[in-house]
Each structure stands twice: as C-alpha cells, then as structure tokens.
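Minutes, structural biology subgroup

Action item carried over from last meeting: produce the structure token record for Peptide ABC transporter ATPase (Secundilactobacillus similis DSM 23365 = JCM 2765). EB confirmed the sequence was re-checked against the source entry. Recorded below for completeness.
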Amino acid sequence: MSYLELRDIHKSYYLGKEEFPVLKGIDLNFDLGEFVSILGESGGGKSTLMNIIGGLDRQFQGSVTVNGKRLDHNDEKALDTYRRDTIGYIYQAYNLISHLSVIDNVLIPLDMTTLNKSEREARAMQLLERVGLKEQAHKYPNQLSGGQKQRVAIARALASDPKVIIADEPTGALDAQNTQEVLQILDDIAAEGRLVIAVTHSQSVADAGTRIVHLEDGQIDKDTKLRDAYATDETPRLKSKLLPASVSYKTAYKHFKYNFWRNSLIVLGTAIGLFAVMLFSGLGNGIKGYINKQVNDMVNPQVVSVSRYQKTSKSAAADAQAAPSSSGGASQAGPSAAAGGAATTSTKKVSLTDKQINKLKNLKHVDQVDKVYSASGVTAKYSGKTATISTLQNWNASATTNTIKYGHKPKAGEVLIDKKSVAKTFSKNDYKSLIGKTITLSYKTLNKDNKMVTVKFKAKVAGITSTSNSMGMAFDNYVNTKTLTSAMKANNVDTTASGVAVSVDKLDNVNATTKKMNQLKMNGKRLFTATSVSSIIGTVQTYVDLATNILAAIAAISLVVSALMIIVTMYMSVSARTKEIGILRALGESKKDIRRLFISESLIIGVLSATLATVVAIGGELLTNHLLASIANFAFVQITIGNVVTVFVIALVISLLAAMLPARSAAKLNPIDALSAD
Ligand SMILES: Nc1ncnc2c1ncn2[C@@H]1O[C@H](COP(=O)(O)OP(=O)(O)OP(=O)(O)O)[C@@H](O)[C@H]1O
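Output recorded by EB:
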C-alpha cells in the first residue's frame, strides 16, 4: 500500500454545456521519501491534478486515498483538515501575503498547530534559518528577491510539518542558481521522509527528483524511476488544530494597520455619527436634569397639589399653571402660587370639606395634608417704606426650604420675605438686618358677607428667600399659616381652603399616589384634581426626550452612511485580498476562519470609531459645560455610562451588519479561483 493513491481520476471543465475533458483516468501511487516530478505539455492538466491531490478541488471523479483512508470530497471540513494536516504548497508565483512580514507568513500554518507561542516562533525562525533567511524575518515580501520569496514559501510550506509537499512550478520564476538551491532544498525535504510532488516543464528540473511522471493527453504515458526513494522513519509529527479566533483578530488588526490611512478615514466618518448621537443624548440628559433642579429648588417635589375636581373648569393643571392674578383680593387656593387668582376670577370657589381632606389623609403613603391660602396684592410696610407682595402664601408642605437664603421657615407670628422685591425695597444694602424686625402686612378681600375688608396683621421677619428664578416663577413670600388664618378670621373672611398640599412619604410614591387621589370618589363622583410637580416635570421631560431623540435619530442617519462606507470598504478589501483568501484556504483555513477575518476587521473599525466618538464627545461635554458655565452653574451636557455603552453597541451592530455580506462572499470564494486571482 502506497502513502498516496489516485484511482481512475477523471476531470472535465465545462463551458456552458460543452465538456472539456482534462484528466482522463489517472492511476498513480506515491510513497513517502519520493521526489516526484510531473512533466507534461502546457495545458495538459498538471495543475488540475495537483489541486485534486492537494484537496482544493472537489469536482472530479475517482478516488484519492491517503495513508489507507479515502478522502471524502463532499466533506469540506475534512478537506480543510487534510490540507492543514498533510499538505504544504509551494507556488511558482510564491503567493506570500504581502501585508504580513516574512515571519508572520511562516507563522500562518503554525497557528494551526498545537505548539505554544514561543515554540511556534522558534520553529518559524528555525525554518527561516534553514532556507537562509533568518536575517530577513521582519521584512515584508516586497522587500525580498524572487529566490528569497520562494524560500519563504518553502519555509511556510514546511511549517506545519506536512507529509506531502506540492510544488507547482517551484523554479519557474527563478534563475539557474536559485533553481539549483531550491531543488536541493526539495530533495532534502524528500530525504526527511516526506513526499514531494513537483510540477515542471523543465527536463533538467525533473531530473533532480527520484521519479518522473509524464502526462500526455490527460493520461500518464510514462512513469520513470530515477533513483530509490528515501527511507522513511516514524518520527512523531506536529499535531494540527483549528485556527484559534484570536489569530483572525490579530491578522485583521495587522491588515487594518497595513491600510492605516484608508481605515482611519472610515473610522473618522463613523465616529462623527456616533459622536453626534452621544452628544445629543448627553444634552438631553443635561436639559432634563436642569429642569428637574430648577423646579425642585422652588417647589417640594414630594408634594401633590389637590383641589376639588370641577367639570366646568378646563383643567386643574391649567388652573395651577395660570399666571398670577394682579388684581387684589385674597383667596384660598391650590398650593401653586398662581392658583388663587385664577380661582377667584374664573370659577366659583369650591372649598374642600374636612371629610374630604380626611379621605386624602387616610391614603397610603400620605404623610401630611396642609391647607393652602394665598393672598394677592399684599402691601408690606416697614419703617415708612412700602413694598408690594404680589402673592403671599401660607408656609405649607409644598414650600421648600431650598428657597430660604437666610433665616428659617416662619413660625407663629413670622413671615418670610423675598430678597429682590421686598427685602431690598426696605433696606437696599443691609437687607439681612431685617431678620427679626416686625413688618406690617395688609390686603383687601371679600369677607363671608361679600363685603370688601382689609386684612391687616404684623409679622416678624423669619428669613429672606431668593430663588434663581431662571424659570420665571413668582417670588417666594410666606407667612405662618396660623398668623394668616387668625387675621382672616378676625375680619370674618372664610378660612376653608379650596386647595391642599399633600406630602407623600417618598419621591418614588408620588406618581402612584397622585393617580390614586385623582381616582378617589364620593357617591360615584370624582372628588379631586391632583397635580404633582413631578407630573409637570414628566410632561416637560417627555418633550425634551422627544426633541433629543429626534436629533439623535437625525444623527443616526449618518450612521447608515457609515455602514455603507464599511460595506464598500469590506467589499474592496475582499476583492483586493482574493488571492490571500485562496492562500489561506490552501493552508487549511476554513470558510468560517475567512468569514471571521473580515468580520473582525470591521469590528475593529467599529470599536475604534466608538472609542474616538466617546473621547471627542467627552471633550465636547467638558468644553460645552465650561462655555455655558457663565449662563448657569450646571452641567448642560451629561453623557452617562449608558450613553457610552449604547454608542458602543450601535457601533458593533453596524460594523457587524456591514461586514456580513462581504465576509460571506469572501468565505464562499472557490479556493482555486481565488488562488488564480491577479
Ligand atoms: N477553471 C477553469 N475553467 C475552464 N478551464 C480550465 C480551468 N482551469 C484550467 N482549465 C483548462 O484545463 C486545462 C488544464 O489546465 P492546467 O492548468 O491544469 O494545465 P497545466 O498542465 O498545469 O498547464 P501549465 O503547464 O501551462 O501550467 C487547460 O486547457 C486549461 O485551459
């Protein structure tokens, strides 16, 4: 039994339906230790026969048996293993991979062996030393002479320690001296107990082997033994394994570096879109945060404003947001600074009864219910000076101590005045000294008998308020509840409230509790209209979200362009690297390895784009926030980890999708066609 046996090999090429038979029944036996030359006329089918022996061609009739085992040409994976394990190729045109260094070319088959990294590198160097190229290990193929390239190809063919070396015109492109040297190396390889099959046109080259097989008209017409085959021994051989994924990533990275400038432009193009998406998202976060802060600084977010539900009034929310009435008069209103005026002018006041208030108090998560009173057009007098307070409220749950700049919240007999409209009117430079001083407050309103009366009382200044007021809200002036209601009662003014401020135990419970209040019923009729600041903020934020999402979506359109760019680049890369694909397949890489190679390269583009976009966006964030610091001391752009993760996910998805088709077409290439690409 010979090591390699060919039986009745027939092979035809087809042009349309027309058949061109090339091999017409080849029977050959080869043994290890032989150096066989295949001679024959040009176009006689020598290369075709080599592709069949080498496991690259699957479309033929007949059988190839290796070491007693018949190859299954329908099993592509088995053929990948066969090429990886048993075959080493040497070509006339060297077929080195131009973007890999000499040593990296030799390392390709070694990556598919079980040797560890240092063993692989040592073996590659040892093989290069054997072919006299140790010094050239880190050069690139285009920096070598023809003879040197062919020696690199020989080192690469030997790297995985294959039993069979197929050399297709190995000396075809070499001068006489290099030809002799290469023939000597091939003879040495056979002497190691390997089978060397070399295709040649040259009789003198053929004479260097141990046997000459002559091909004529698709058949063997002569088979001449020149000398004995070399003896073989059973030295253990290197074991092969599938190509690890990490090698594909590394090779992809090397190719990325090789085409650095072209790839950098693509990275830049993709990064621009990703950067815009990230910056707009960060801007959305910042604006939402800013609105939140502004509102929460002025009003306690844990408080819900509740008034009686009225079908006739357009909506309580509208009431709550109406502008403060400038007309005089006191009212008992919702906690919003504005509600009082609107209630007296547009709708009949509906007071909340104690029973109704108790219903609110009994709700789960409700901590406290405060009646809300609001007096408009209040005159404040101190030391002969007069200031007008457009709205004076009782200190209730909805008020927040955030607004108090000096002093404390008003206890019995005390009032809080705002810095700008009241305190500075009384004492321009030394307004802080007003704390502890007593001022007189008065306003006109209708009493229970519908008569206009003046409610007048004195109060000690407990503190001074100041809000940043960038939201354009009213100034904050608050009087102690009891102080106000006593004065109202003294003038026979109604002290039932048309609005209450309800404190909820936790911020997280505000929305659910507000909903429950709106659902409360008595005798089948809805009782209350409840509005929380967070629901107002929620509405505003919905619009901010919408706006930023639209902006981000527009930015995302540019990502479609990026994806197209990556697709085009990948297709270009596939067509430029067709030969490389053929070489890698011949060396035993599988379709999957090829697919992974191109996908990895695209993923590298994606990751680098996302990284660049993140760096630039964070730089943009710092710069924008710095520039806007003069408007308000707030970070208007807030890029979160979530935004960064999203951008990376988008980049990876885009690059993965963009690489899929090109990578698929690369993997589907027929290795023989790929090898013959220019
Ligand atoms: N893919 C193909 N499609 C159609 N015909 C092909 C194909 N490949 C080779 N042939 C034809 O098959 C015949 C054998 O080609 P092959 O390359 O095997 O010959 P060869 O003996 O190696 O020639 P040379 O010595 O010139 O390299 C030629 O006539 C060639 O035109």
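Discussion: The CA atoms of residues 270 and 454 lie 71 Å apart.
Next step: EB to file the record with the rest of the batch.
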